[in-house]
């Protein structure tokens, strides 16, 4: 019976070997490959296409609106709507959708047809005719039902009205679907009837605007201009590059795992003999099916204007990474979410399943979304570029120190931005940045700051090989004298730091792979904006009656912030216990669970900053706190129920069947008088194994009962998301971990044909 029940697993494994690969071809023209640069943006209605479609005066009006100088008038909106409809329908589009980012961790869309009916009245009668139409008002906004999206109590179920509004800073694009379908996507924000933000994007745009204003305030002091002349910099924008890690597994095996299907991670599963300990997967040869999926994904993304750049194997088996070129933050977020959607669809076509969960497999590395963040001006200057002599680049030093000050004062808030039930399994493990938010600068910049603080020259960092590495040398001339010199960065990398300076940007490594980057980047933008305002005020105070601060004034402020931010700098191993003890001595928060992290959002010192900058209203913050607590509890309750079902309906019956087989065999052998070495029935291997199985089976039943008890305790506080989240963390997590430990041990004891689920050895190696 057990063997028959296990047929799907074995059949799937055999079918995977014989399955023919999916074949696609990159576009060709006259027999020659089309360059990727020619494909880029093919399905995007960007500024170049709008400029061609609109009269010059109308296009100029649109640019003013995009830059925030005026509202979009109806005439211009109608002209754009007409142009984009013609372009989209010529490419096969039949529908349009406002594409937005509700607080569900994913995107949402509702498709509307261009088709409409036009009725005319004449003396001869009423005539109804089908036409294709798309008005400016339809482009600008739509009205999805807001009652079923998370609102944190801001909207009641009977108050259903909400609005999606076109985000003109992000270009519209086309996506093709099955059966030659095609839809025009309109990137949008999502607000309530009262104007409250119900999404992730609205607050990101607010934070970017406030950060730009704060940075401009600083630059006005640092970039003197003649009286009456416009400022040298008119806009500062955040740039973002999101390195997306993910797992790819066989979809046929995936569908046989209820835990993966429902929760995104394996709730049980013993670690196979070979996992990542051989260290041979990282940057290794990309498997053919994976490379086919990657290349097809990249082809679609290039047409959508997503500048995908890098692909490679990651550390764990079947773990990979895709990274883009940096873009303006709000567009980078759109493109990251689009990347996740396209990757999922293409993987499906290749009979694979992409897993974005931060820790889908216990015992091997999890996945992150490394967010590379910086500030750039509308003149193309990177404000975090240290240049050749950072010690005299006061603009760089002030922006650097503002960022460090933001991490120092609002590190706990940044911790809240990366907190989730799934990322909780990854943070603090020996594979991911710890929950303590600190800043890594590297040896060179640390020396620069120390020398300024101590008013002394910089110690010698100008050795002959600091800028290049010579691959020759006395011992290696024969071997590598033909190799060129290579450039060398001023600082090494620290993969254990959650917030590391990496040349001309900060890498926020702690963001979860499944998360939208919007919320973490919103909090970072806000914290840096507040610190920039504070530093600007300090410069004005130092300057006194002077219109601009002198170099001495700047150094005074720089030296002060070097001293105050020193405690958040850490250059060592962020995984070590010694760092946890040192961080505690410094007073840096170590928030180890999600409910405590979520509370930081409404803590006075953080909420005052967020509300004061106008990034959140008080009700929006309270709403988000409510939603995060509620989501966390729901995630854990769902996992606990799925685990209980798997244990009771699959694992325990498999053990019962194996036990029955062993018992029957032992009885028959005893009846025949067959025993091991003449030691009697007790010496039979079957009896020995039965004696090992039985206590584990009894123990597993106890953990099932413990799960039931934990679920009941959580149920008693239902209705209060904060209490429910804390109860889930307190009772469900240890019960699930205890049950898993026993189930995994039983897996190693069962005969393979009795185990009902695809094993980790099968999921991670195909």
Protein architecture, described:
- With 766 residues, the chain is of the alpha+beta class.
- It has 3 domains: 35-199, Ubiquitin-like (UB roll) (Roll); 207-225 and 234-268 and 281-471 and 485-616, Glutamine synthetase/guanido kinase, catalytic domain (Creatine Kinase, Chain A, domain 2, 2-Layer Sandwich), CATH 3.30.590; 632-763, Up-down Bundle (Four Helix Bundle (Hemerythrin (Met), subunit A)).
- The chain is built from 24 helices and 22 strands.
- Helix 14 crosses helix 17 (551-564), helix 16 crosses helix 17 (551-564) and helix 22 packs antiparallel against helix 23.
- It is globular.
List the helices and strands and how they pair.
Layout: H1 2-5, H2 7-18, E1 28-29, E2 32-33, H3 36-39, E3 44-45, H4 47-53, H5 56-66, H6 74-90, E4 95-99, E5 111-113, E6 115-122, E7 125-132, H7 136-140, E8 141-142, E9 162-166, E10 172-176, E11 182-192, H8 201-222, E12 236-250, H9 251-254, H10 258-263, H11 288-303, E13 308-313, E14 319-324, E15 327-328, H12 329-349, E16 352-355, E17 369-377, H13 394-417, E18 439-440, H14 443-453, E19 468-469, H15 477-480, E20 486-487, E21 499-501, E22 506-508, H16 518-543, H17 551-564, H18 577-586, H19 594-599, H20 604-612, H21 618-671, H22 685-716, H23 721-749, H24 760-763
Parallel strand pairs: 4-11, 18-21
Antiparallel strand pairs: 1-2, 3-10, 4-5, 6-7, 8-9, 9-11, 10-11, 12-14, 12-15, 12-16, 12-17, 13-14, 17-22, 19-20, 21-22
Helix pairs in contact: 5-6, 8-16, 11-12, 13-16, 13-17, 14-17, 16-17, 21-22, 21-23, 22-23
């Amino acid at each position: 019976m057990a063997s028959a029940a296990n047929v799907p697993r074995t059949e799937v494994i055999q079918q995977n070997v014989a399955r023919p690969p999916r074949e696609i071809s990159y576009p060709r023209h006259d027999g020659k490959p089309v360059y990727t640069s020619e494909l880029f943006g093919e399905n995007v209605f960007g500024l170049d296409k709008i400029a061609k479609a609109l009269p010059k005066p109308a296009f100029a009006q649109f640019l003013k609106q995009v830059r925030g100088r005026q509202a979009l008038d109806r005439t211009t909106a109608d002209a754009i709507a007409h142009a984009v409809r013609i372009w989209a329908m010529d490419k096969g589009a039949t529908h349009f959708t406002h594409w937005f980012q509700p607080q569900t961790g994913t995107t949402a869309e509702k498709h509307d047809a261009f088709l409409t009916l036009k009725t005319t009245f004449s003396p001869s009668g009423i005539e109804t005719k089908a036409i294709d139409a798309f008005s400016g008002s339809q482009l600008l906004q739509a009205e999805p039902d807001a009652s079923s999206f998370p609102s944190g109590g801001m909207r009641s179920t009977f108050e259903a009205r909400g609005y999606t509004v076109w985000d003109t800073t992000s270009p519209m694009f086309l996506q093709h679907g099955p059966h030659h379908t095609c839809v025009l996507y309109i990137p949008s924000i999502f607000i309530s009837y009262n104007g409250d933000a119900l999404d992730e994007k609205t607050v990101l745009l607010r934070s970017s605007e406030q950060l730009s204003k704060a940075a401009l305030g600083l630059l006005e002091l640092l970039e003197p201009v003649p009286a009456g002349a416009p400022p040298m910099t008119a806009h500062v924008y955040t740039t973002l590059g999101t390195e997306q890690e993910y797992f790819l597994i066989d979809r046929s095996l995936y569908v046989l795992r209820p835990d993966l299907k429902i929760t995104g991670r394996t709730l049980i599963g013993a670690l196979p003999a070979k996992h990542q300990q051989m260290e041979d997967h990282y940057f290794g040869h990309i498997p053919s099916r994976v490379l086919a999926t990657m290349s097809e994904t990249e082809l679609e993304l290039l047409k959508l204007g997503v500048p995908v750049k890098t692909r490679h194997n990651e550390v764990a088996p079947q773990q990979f990474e895709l990274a883009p070129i940096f873009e303006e933050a709000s567009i980078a977020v759109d493109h990251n979410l689009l990347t996740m959607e396209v990757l999922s669809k293409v993987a499906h076509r290749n009979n694979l399943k992409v897993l974005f969960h931060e820790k889908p497999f216990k015992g091997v590395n999890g996945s992150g979304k490394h967010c590379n963040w910086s500030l750039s001006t509308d003149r193309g200057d990177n404000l975090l570029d240290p240049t050749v002599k950072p010690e005299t680049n006061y603009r760089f030093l002030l922006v650097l120190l503002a960022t460090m000050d933001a991490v120092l004062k609002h590190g706990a808030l940044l911790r809240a931005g990366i907190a989730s039930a799934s990322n909780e399994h990854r943070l603090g493990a020996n594979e991911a940045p710890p929950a303590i938010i600190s800043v890594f600068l590297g040896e060179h910049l640390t020396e620069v700051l120390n020398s300024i603080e101590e008013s002394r020259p910089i110690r010698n960092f100008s050795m002959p090989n600091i800028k290049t590495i010579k691959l020759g040398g006395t011992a290696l001339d024969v071997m590598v004298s033909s190799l060129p010199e290579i450039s060398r960065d001023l600082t090494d990398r620290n993969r254990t730091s959650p917030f590391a300076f990496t040349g001309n940007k900060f890498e926020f490594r702690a963001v979860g792979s499944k998360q939208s980057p919007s919320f973490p980047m919103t909090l970072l933008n806000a914290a840096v904006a507040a610190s920039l305002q504070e530093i600007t005020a300090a410069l004005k105070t130092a300057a006194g009656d002077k219109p601009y601060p002198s170099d001495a004034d700047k150094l005074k402020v720089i030296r002060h912030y070097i001293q105050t931010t020193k405690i958040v700098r850490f250059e060592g191993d962020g995984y070590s216990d010694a760092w946890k003890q040192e961080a505690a001595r410094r007073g840096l928060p170590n928030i180890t669970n999600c409910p405590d992290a979520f509370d930081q959002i409404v803590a006075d010192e953080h909420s005052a900053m967020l509300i004061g900058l106008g990034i959140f209203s008080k009700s929006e913050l309270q709403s988000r706190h409510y939603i995060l607590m509620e989501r966390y509890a729901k995630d854990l309750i769902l996992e606990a129920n799925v685990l209980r079902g798997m244990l009771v309906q699959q694992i325990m019956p498999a053990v019962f069947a194996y036990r029955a087989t062993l018992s029957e065999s032992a009885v028959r052998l005893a009846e025949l008088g067959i025993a091991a070495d003449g030691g009697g029935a007790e010496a039979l291997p079957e009896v020995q194994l039965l004696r090992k199985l039985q206590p584990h089976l009894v123990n597993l039943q106890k953990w099932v009962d413990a799960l039931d008890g934990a679920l009941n305790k959580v149920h008693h506080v239902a209705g209060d998301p904060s209490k429910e989240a804390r109860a889930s963390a307190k009772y469900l997590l240890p019960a699930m971990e205890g049950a898993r430990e026993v189930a995994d041990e039983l897996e190693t004891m069962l005969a393979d044909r009795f185990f009902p689920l695809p094993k980790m050895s099968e999921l991670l190696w195909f």
